[in-house]
Amino acid sequence: MNLVDTVRNTLVPVHKEGYRFIAIFFAVSLVLGLLWEPLMWIGFLLTAWCAYFFRDPERMTPVDEDLVVSPADGRVSAVAHVTPPEELGLGSEPMLRISVFMNVFDCHVNRAPMSGTVRRIAYRAGSFLNAELDKASHENERNGLVIETNHGAIGVVQIAGLVARRILCWTGENAALEAGERFGLIRFGSRLDVFLPEGAAPRVSVGQTAVAGETVLAEFGSEKGPVISRRA
Protein backbone atom coordinates (compact mmCIF):
# COMPACT_ATOMS: atom_id res chain seq x y z
CA MET A 1 0.00 0.00 0.00
CA ASN A 2 1.47 3.37 -1.02
CA LEU A 3 1.24 6.69 0.83
CA VAL A 4 -1.75 7.90 -1.23
CA ASP A 5 -3.75 4.76 -0.41
CA THR A 6 -2.84 5.07 3.27
CA VAL A 7 -4.08 8.67 3.42
CA ARG A 8 -7.25 7.80 1.48
CA ASN A 9 -8.06 4.93 3.86
CA THR A 10 -7.37 7.06 6.94
CA LEU A 11 -9.41 10.14 6.05
CA VAL A 12 -13.18 9.91 6.42
CA PRO A 13 -15.06 11.05 3.28
CA VAL A 14 -17.10 14.24 3.46
CA HIS A 15 -20.59 14.23 1.97
CA LYS A 16 -21.07 16.58 -0.98
CA GLU A 17 -23.87 18.39 0.88
CA GLY A 18 -21.18 19.82 3.12
CA TYR A 19 -18.90 21.26 0.42
CA ARG A 20 -20.72 24.60 0.26
CA PHE A 21 -20.75 25.06 4.02
CA ILE A 22 -17.08 24.16 4.38
CA ALA A 23 -16.18 26.66 1.65
CA ILE A 24 -18.23 29.38 3.38
CA PHE A 25 -16.62 28.68 6.76
CA PHE A 26 -13.16 28.78 5.16
CA ALA A 27 -13.81 32.03 3.27
CA VAL A 28 -15.19 33.75 6.37
CA SER A 29 -12.11 32.61 8.30
CA LEU A 30 -9.83 34.30 5.77
CA VAL A 31 -11.83 37.53 5.98
CA LEU A 32 -11.71 37.45 9.78
CA GLY A 33 -7.95 36.97 9.54
CA LEU A 34 -7.69 40.35 7.84
CA LEU A 35 -9.31 41.92 10.88
CA TRP A 36 -7.49 40.00 13.61
CA GLU A 37 -5.34 36.91 13.15
CA PRO A 38 -6.66 34.95 16.19
CA LEU A 39 -10.15 35.15 14.67
CA MET A 40 -8.82 33.40 11.58
CA TRP A 41 -7.57 30.44 13.61
CA ILE A 42 -10.89 30.23 15.44
CA GLY A 43 -12.56 30.21 12.04
CA PHE A 44 -10.28 27.41 10.85
CA LEU A 45 -11.27 25.35 13.90
CA LEU A 46 -14.94 25.89 13.06
CA THR A 47 -14.21 24.95 9.45
CA ALA A 48 -12.66 21.69 10.66
CA TRP A 49 -15.75 21.05 12.79
CA CYS A 50 -17.97 21.68 9.75
CA ALA A 51 -16.02 19.12 7.72
CA TYR A 52 -16.30 16.69 10.64
CA PHE A 53 -20.06 17.27 10.86
CA PHE A 54 -20.58 16.35 7.20
CA ARG A 55 -18.41 13.23 7.35
CA ASP A 56 -19.84 10.21 5.56
CA PRO A 57 -17.99 7.04 6.59
CA GLU A 58 -18.59 3.62 5.09
CA ARG A 59 -20.55 1.23 7.29
CA MET A 60 -20.81 -2.57 7.52
CA THR A 61 -24.53 -3.41 7.53
CA PRO A 62 -25.61 -6.91 8.63
CA VAL A 63 -27.37 -8.79 5.84
CA ASP A 64 -30.46 -10.24 7.52
CA GLU A 65 -34.05 -9.32 6.61
CA ASP A 66 -35.15 -9.92 10.21
CA LEU A 67 -32.91 -7.16 11.59
CA VAL A 68 -33.67 -3.45 11.93
CA VAL A 69 -30.52 -1.32 11.89
CA SER A 70 -30.21 2.20 13.20
CA PRO A 71 -31.02 4.94 10.66
CA ALA A 72 -28.75 7.42 12.44
CA ASP A 73 -25.70 7.85 14.62
CA GLY A 74 -26.54 9.03 18.10
CA ARG A 75 -28.06 8.03 21.41
CA VAL A 76 -31.17 5.89 21.80
CA SER A 77 -33.52 8.35 23.52
CA ALA A 78 -36.75 6.34 23.66
CA VAL A 79 -38.09 2.80 23.24
CA ALA A 80 -41.87 2.71 23.59
CA HIS A 81 -45.16 1.80 21.95
CA VAL A 82 -46.88 4.93 20.61
CA THR A 83 -49.28 5.93 17.85
CA PRO A 84 -47.39 6.83 14.65
CA PRO A 85 -47.84 10.26 13.03
CA GLU A 86 -51.11 10.47 11.13
CA GLU A 87 -49.48 11.45 7.82
CA LEU A 88 -47.70 8.09 7.60
CA GLY A 89 -51.01 6.29 7.16
CA LEU A 90 -49.95 3.43 9.44
CA GLY A 91 -53.17 3.41 11.45
CA SER A 92 -54.10 4.49 14.95
CA GLU A 93 -52.82 1.45 16.84
CA PRO A 94 -49.61 1.88 18.85
CA MET A 95 -46.41 0.67 17.19
CA LEU A 96 -42.95 0.08 18.61
CA ARG A 97 -41.06 3.36 18.29
CA ILE A 98 -37.30 3.54 18.71
CA SER A 99 -35.86 7.06 18.70
CA VAL A 100 -32.23 8.01 18.04
CA PHE A 101 -31.16 11.54 18.99
CA MET A 102 -28.29 13.14 17.06
CA ASN A 103 -26.26 15.96 18.58
CA VAL A 104 -24.09 18.35 16.56
CA PHE A 105 -21.07 16.05 16.86
CA ASP A 106 -22.75 12.95 15.41
CA CYS A 107 -22.61 11.93 11.77
CA HIS A 108 -25.90 13.16 10.26
CA VAL A 109 -26.23 10.98 7.17
CA ASN A 110 -29.43 8.92 7.49
CA ARG A 111 -29.67 5.28 6.37
CA ALA A 112 -32.51 2.86 5.67
CA PRO A 113 -33.21 0.59 8.68
CA MET A 114 -34.47 -2.28 6.50
CA SER A 115 -34.59 -3.27 2.85
CA GLY A 116 -37.84 -2.53 1.06
CA THR A 117 -39.79 -0.23 -1.23
CA VAL A 118 -40.67 3.36 -0.33
CA ARG A 119 -44.48 3.52 -0.45
CA ARG A 120 -44.99 7.02 0.91
CA ILE A 121 -43.04 10.18 1.69
CA ALA A 122 -44.87 12.74 3.81
CA TYR A 123 -43.46 16.12 4.84
CA ARG A 124 -45.11 18.03 7.69
CA ALA A 125 -44.20 21.59 8.71
CA GLY A 126 -44.02 22.21 12.44
CA SER A 127 -42.18 23.65 15.41
CA PHE A 128 -38.50 23.43 16.31
CA LEU A 129 -38.66 22.09 19.85
CA ASN A 130 -35.84 20.18 21.49
CA ALA A 131 -35.81 16.95 19.47
CA GLU A 132 -35.27 14.90 22.63
CA LEU A 133 -38.74 15.82 23.91
CA ASP A 134 -41.35 13.13 23.36
CA LYS A 135 -43.84 15.62 21.89
CA ALA A 136 -41.32 16.53 19.17
CA SER A 137 -42.53 13.44 17.28
CA HIS A 138 -45.86 15.13 16.61
CA GLU A 139 -45.12 18.86 16.90
CA ASN A 140 -41.79 19.40 15.13
CA GLU A 141 -41.08 19.78 11.44
CA ARG A 142 -40.57 16.30 10.05
CA ASN A 143 -40.31 14.14 6.97
CA GLY A 144 -41.65 10.61 7.10
CA LEU A 145 -41.04 7.56 4.92
CA VAL A 146 -43.15 4.42 4.82
CA ILE A 147 -41.10 1.45 3.66
CA GLU A 148 -42.78 -1.82 2.69
CA THR A 149 -40.59 -4.67 3.94
CA ASN A 150 -40.89 -8.44 4.17
CA HIS A 151 -42.29 -7.90 7.67
CA GLY A 152 -44.85 -5.27 6.69
CA ALA A 153 -44.79 -1.49 6.53
CA ILE A 154 -42.40 0.42 8.78
CA GLY A 155 -42.12 4.16 9.34
CA VAL A 156 -38.92 6.22 9.40
CA VAL A 157 -39.30 9.86 10.46
CA GLN A 158 -36.65 12.57 10.18
CA ILE A 159 -37.38 15.18 12.87
CA ALA A 160 -35.93 18.69 13.00
CA GLY A 161 -34.73 20.06 16.32
CA LEU A 162 -33.65 23.32 17.95
CA VAL A 163 -30.64 23.72 15.67
CA ALA A 164 -31.67 21.61 12.69
CA ARG A 165 -33.68 23.63 10.19
CA ARG A 166 -33.10 21.65 7.03
CA ILE A 167 -34.25 18.09 6.33
CA LEU A 168 -32.91 16.47 3.17
CA CYS A 169 -34.39 13.32 1.63
CA TRP A 170 -32.78 11.91 -1.52
CA THR A 171 -35.08 8.99 -2.23
CA GLY A 172 -38.55 8.97 -3.77
CA GLU A 173 -41.79 7.02 -3.68
CA ASN A 174 -41.60 3.55 -5.25
CA ALA A 175 -37.81 3.57 -4.91
CA ALA A 176 -36.10 0.44 -3.62
CA LEU A 177 -33.83 0.83 -0.60
CA GLU A 178 -31.34 -1.62 0.82
CA ALA A 179 -30.75 -1.82 4.56
CA GLY A 180 -28.01 0.66 5.44
CA GLU A 181 -28.42 2.63 2.21
CA ARG A 182 -28.13 6.41 2.52
CA PHE A 183 -31.44 8.21 2.00
CA GLY A 184 -31.13 11.61 3.67
CA LEU A 185 -29.43 14.05 6.01
CA ILE A 186 -30.49 16.62 8.61
CA ARG A 187 -28.60 19.84 9.36
CA PHE A 188 -27.47 20.44 12.24
CA GLY A 189 -28.77 18.10 14.96
CA SER A 190 -32.09 16.29 15.31
CA ARG A 191 -33.73 12.90 15.74
CA LEU A 192 -34.81 9.82 13.79
CA ASP A 193 -37.84 7.74 14.81
CA VAL A 194 -38.43 4.21 13.56
CA PHE A 195 -41.96 2.78 13.84
CA LEU A 196 -42.18 -1.01 13.70
CA PRO A 197 -45.19 -3.34 13.42
CA GLU A 198 -46.09 -6.22 15.71
CA GLY A 199 -43.47 -8.93 15.83
CA ALA A 200 -40.48 -6.63 16.28
CA ALA A 201 -38.53 -7.00 19.52
CA PRO A 202 -36.21 -4.17 20.63
CA ARG A 203 -32.53 -5.06 20.87
CA VAL A 204 -31.38 -1.74 22.40
CA SER A 205 -32.19 0.25 25.51
CA VAL A 206 -32.41 3.96 26.30
CA GLY A 207 -29.02 5.60 26.62
CA GLN A 208 -27.22 3.20 24.30
CA THR A 209 -25.06 4.63 21.52
CA ALA A 210 -26.21 3.69 18.02
CA VAL A 211 -24.23 3.62 14.78
CA ALA A 212 -26.18 4.18 11.56
CA GLY A 213 -26.34 1.13 9.34
CA GLU A 214 -24.64 -1.12 11.89
CA THR A 215 -26.32 -1.13 15.31
CA VAL A 216 -29.28 -3.53 15.45
CA LEU A 217 -32.24 -1.67 16.98
CA ALA A 218 -34.79 -4.47 16.76
CA GLU A 219 -35.34 -7.96 15.44
CA PHE A 220 -38.32 -9.77 13.95
CA GLY A 221 -39.10 -13.35 14.87
CA SER A 222 -37.02 -13.34 18.02
CA GLU A 223 -38.35 -14.90 21.22
CA LYS A 224 -35.89 -12.96 23.33
CA GLY A 225 -37.27 -10.39 25.73
CA PRO A 226 -36.34 -6.70 25.90
CA VAL A 227 -32.66 -5.90 26.34
CA ILE A 228 -31.60 -5.12 29.90
CA SER A 229 -28.50 -2.92 30.12
CA ARG A 230 -26.18 -1.88 32.90
CA ARG A 231 -23.44 0.71 33.16
CA ALA A 232 -19.95 -0.75 33.08
Automatic annotation (TrEMBL):
Protein localization: Cell membrane
GO cellular component: plasma membrane
Modification Pyruvic acid (Ser) occurs at: S190
Any one Pfam family match given in the protein's UniProt record, by short name: PS_Dcarbxylase
Pathway of action: Phospholipid metabolism; phosphatidylethanolamine biosynthesis; phosphatidylethanolamine from CDP-diacylglycerol: step 2/2
Ranges that cross the membrane: 21-54
Note accompanying the cofactor annotation: Binds 1 pyruvoyl group covalently per subunit.
Top enzyme category: lyase
Catalytic activity of the protein: a 1,2-diacyl-sn-glycero-3-phospho-L-serine + H(+) = a 1,2-diacyl-sn-glycero-3-phosphoethanolamine + CO2
Entry comment on modification after translation: Is synthesized initially as an inactive proenzyme. Formation of the active enzyme involves a self-maturation process in which the active site pyruvoyl group is generated from an internal serine residue via an autocatalytic post-translational modification. Two non-identical subunits are generated from the proenzyme in this reaction, and the pyruvate is formed at the N-terminus of the alpha chain, which is derived from the carboxyl end of the proenzyme.
Catalytic residue list: S190
Example GO BP: phosphatidylethanolamine biosynthetic process
Membrane topology reported for the UniProt record: Peripheral membrane protein
Domain of life of the organism encoding this protein: Bacteria
GO MF terms held by the record: phosphatidylserine decarboxylase activity
Known cofactor(s): pyruvate
Family matches, as InterPro entries: PS_Dcarbxylase, PSD-A
Family statement: Belongs to the phosphatidylserine decarboxylase family. PSD-A subfamily.
Quaternary structure annotation from Swiss-Prot or TrEMBL: Heterodimer of a large membrane-associated beta subunit and a small pyruvoyl-containing alpha subunit.
HAMAP family: PS_decarb_PSD_A
Its biological purpose: Catalyzes the formation of phosphatidylethanolamine (PtdEtn) from phosphatidylserine (PtdSer).
PANTHER family: ARCHAETIDYLSERINE DECARBOXYLASE PROENZYME-RELATED (PTHR35809:SF1)
Protein name: Phosphatidylserine decarboxylase proenzyme
